[in-house]
């Protein structure tokens, strides 16, 4: 087979189509109406409304106060591509609403939202601030969403100047989860942490984090992220450990927003299904035996805690290389960045062995939610494994497609669509330009003001060239 190398792609041509017919060298490609109603994964996640309740007391030095502000900005940027809405409240002697959920919805730029924050520099009325958030921020008028999970993250460097007059109980009654971050030397002893434990949700060892210095605040995102993403998963059915057939049936009957149609592969009588809801949503595969009277559950040798909520089996593709049989399996919520695992099935023993793993690069990217295998030269061997990460984004681009098999490269859409979700759908095509190589189409359903776009890549194979552009693109805009 060919060895492929390519650099990040540039668009070579673009043409608005509408209902027109596009003529290519070897065939006609006629595009009929394609609905732009396709919205990825909004129903996969429960909404989270999150309030930063941060200390502005005089005990904080200016650089420490700025560290808190920068931490909030960093968290909002990293979780921007999620179902989380933010608000921020500063507390000292008085309580000051810096921005509410409505402000965030209008302009989710954390730098701008926190640009006018002024350090209040007075005493630390923490419980008064909690009461304010419960009664004045978590309300529909401030943009709180019906049914959303409610979270307060309290960041403070000192003990409260006031006392608990039912404020924490009011937060509990409203179902508000309270994550507490205590920073600095004032919280060295168990006694000094007593107030923090009153404020935190239970069990307090999970929802209270004490940091020795403000420098550690920058590194606490991963722990915070895991707690928030657990909430974002929503109220989902957790299967019991009954037969795996029952587990697969439960998954198939789930909401269409939660489950895509179960992946399927059949080779020499082998039938493999994805079971994303199995084992506390770690997921896995179900291999049906030839007589369809029994099945075998396939999972990963990774630590069970590490795989919790990973959705293994969300995407599934068969690869064939040198008369060997492999399965690429997507786990888009693995550790919140996503992972693709490649298993080999021994033809004689039918044993499954984990051979290779690829991990996403950005929190919430949904790396591995979409997989596509391509036989470029039509020799019955897999040449490309394309992995979609449609929720990955930069300031100008939304979505990405990786090849993790041979090329070790990536594709992306045009600049200007950071929420375009390029890679939400990927498929191999026939040889549409007559050059002898299989071509590829990638969907970006939210580009062009959510009208959608399809990118068609013409694959080429020239192994003698050390570096070349293996896929040149033709950009097709779809207008509703």
Automatic annotation (TrEMBL):
<dbReference type="GO" id="GO:0008305">
    <property type="term" value="C:integrin complex"/>
</dbReference>
<feature type="repeat" description="FG-GAP">
    <location>
        <begin position="353"/>
        <end position="403"/>
    </location>
</feature>
<keyword id="KW-0732">Signal</keyword>
<dbReference type="Pfam" id="PF01839">
    <property type="entry name" value="FG-GAP"/>
</dbReference>
<keyword id="KW-0675">Receptor</keyword>
<dbReference type="InterPro" id="IPR036465">
    <property type="entry name" value="vWFA_dom_sf"/>
</dbReference>
<dbReference type="InterPro" id="IPR013519">
    <property type="entry name" value="Int_alpha_beta-p"/>
</dbReference>
<feature type="domain" description="VWFA">
    <location>
        <begin position="49"/>
        <end position="228"/>
    </location>
</feature>
<dbReference type="GO" id="GO:0005178">
    <property type="term" value="F:integrin binding"/>
</dbReference>
<keyword id="KW-0677">Repeat</keyword>
<keyword id="KW-0106">Calcium</keyword>
<dbReference type="GO" id="GO:0046872">
    <property type="term" value="F:metal ion binding"/>
</dbReference>
<keyword id="KW-0130">Cell adhesion</keyword>
<dbReference type="GO" id="GO:0007160">
    <property type="term" value="P:cell-matrix adhesion"/>
</dbReference>
<dbReference type="InterPro" id="IPR028994">
    <property type="entry name" value="Integrin_alpha_N"/>
</dbReference>
<keyword id="KW-0479">Metal-binding</keyword>
<dbReference type="Pfam" id="PF00092">
    <property type="entry name" value="VWA"/>
</dbReference>
<dbReference type="InterPro" id="IPR002035">
    <property type="entry name" value="VWF_A"/>
</dbReference>
<dbReference type="GO" id="GO:0033627">
    <property type="term" value="P:cell adhesion mediated by integrin"/>
</dbReference>
<dbReference type="InterPro" id="IPR013517">
    <property type="entry name" value="FG-GAP"/>
</dbReference>
<dbReference type="GO" id="GO:0009897">
    <property type="term" value="C:external side of plasma membrane"/>
</dbReference>
<dbReference type="GO" id="GO:0007229">
    <property type="term" value="P:integrin-mediated signaling pathway"/>
</dbReference>
<protein>
    <recommendedName>
        <fullName>VWFA domain-containing protein</fullName>
    </recommendedName>
</protein>
<feature type="repeat" description="FG-GAP">
    <location>
        <begin position="408"/>
        <end position="466"/>
    </location>
</feature>
<dbReference type="GO" id="GO:0098609">
    <property type="term" value="P:cell-cell adhesion"/>
</dbReference>
<dbReference type="InterPro" id="IPR000413">
    <property type="entry name" value="Integrin_alpha"/>
</dbReference>
<keyword id="KW-0401">Integrin</keyword>
<comment type="similarity">
    <text>Belongs to the integrin alpha chain family.</text>
</comment>
<keyword id="KW-0325">Glycoprotein</keyword>
């Amino acid at each position: 087979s060919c060895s492929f190398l390519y650099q990040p792609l540039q668009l070579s041509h673009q043409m608005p189509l509408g209902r027109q017919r596009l003529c290519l060298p070897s065939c006609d490609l006629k595009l009929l109406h394609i609905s732009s109603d396709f919205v990825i994964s909004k129903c996969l996640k429960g909404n989270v409304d999150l309030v930063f309740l941060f200390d502005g007391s005089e005990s904080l030095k200016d650089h420490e106060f700025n560290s808190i502000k920068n931490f909030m900005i960093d968290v909002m940027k990293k979780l921007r591509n999620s179902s989380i809405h933010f608000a921020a409240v500063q507390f000292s002697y008085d309580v000051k609403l810096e921005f509410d959920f409505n402000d965030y919805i209008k302009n989710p730029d954390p730098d701008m939202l926190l640009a006018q924050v002024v350090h209040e520099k007075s005493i630390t009325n923490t419980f008064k601030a909690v009461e304010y958030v419960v009664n004045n921020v978590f309300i529909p008028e401030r943009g709180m969403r019906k049914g959303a999970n409610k979270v307060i993250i309290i960041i403070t460097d000192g003990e409260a100047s006031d006392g608990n007059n039912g404020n924490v109980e009011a937060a509990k009654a409203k179902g508000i989860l309270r994550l507490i971050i205590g920073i600095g030397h004032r919280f060295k002893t168990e006694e000094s942490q007593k107030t923090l434990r009153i404020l935190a949700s239970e069990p307090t060892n999970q929802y209270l984090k004490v940091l020795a210095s403000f420098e550690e605040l920058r590194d606490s995102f991963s722990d915070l992220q895991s707690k928030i993403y657990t909430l974002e998963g929503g109220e989902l059915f957790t299967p019991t450990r009954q037969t795996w057939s029952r587990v697969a049936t439960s998954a198939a009957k789930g909401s269409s927003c939660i489950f895509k149609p179960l992946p399927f592969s059949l080779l020499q009588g082998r039938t493999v299904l994805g079971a994303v809801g199995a084992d506390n949503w770690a997921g896995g595969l179900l291999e049906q035996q030839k007589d369809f009277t029994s099945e075998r559950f396939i999972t990963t040798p990774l630590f069970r805690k590490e795989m919790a909520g990973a959705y293994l089996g969300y995407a599934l593709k068969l690869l064939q290389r040198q008369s060997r049989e492999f399965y690429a399996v997507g786990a888009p919520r693995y550790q919140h960045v996503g992972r693709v695992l490649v298993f080999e099935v021994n033809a004689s023993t039918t044993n499954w062995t984990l051979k290779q793993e690829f991990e996403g690069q950005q929190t919430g990217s949904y790396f591995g939610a979409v997989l596509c295998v391509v036989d470029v030269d039509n020799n019955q061997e897999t040449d490309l494994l394309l992995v979609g990460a449609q929720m990955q984004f930069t300031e100008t681009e939304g979505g990405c497609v990786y090849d993790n098999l041979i090329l070790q490269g990536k594709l992306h859409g045009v600049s200007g669509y950071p929420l375009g979700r390029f890679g939400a759908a990927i498929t191999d095509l026939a040889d549409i330009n007559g050059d002898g190589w299989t071509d590829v189409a990638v969907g970006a359903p939210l580009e062009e003001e959510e009208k959608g776009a399809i990118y068609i890549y013409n694959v080429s194979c020239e192994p003698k060239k050390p570096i070349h552009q293996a896929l040149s693109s033709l950009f097709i805009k779809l207008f509703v």
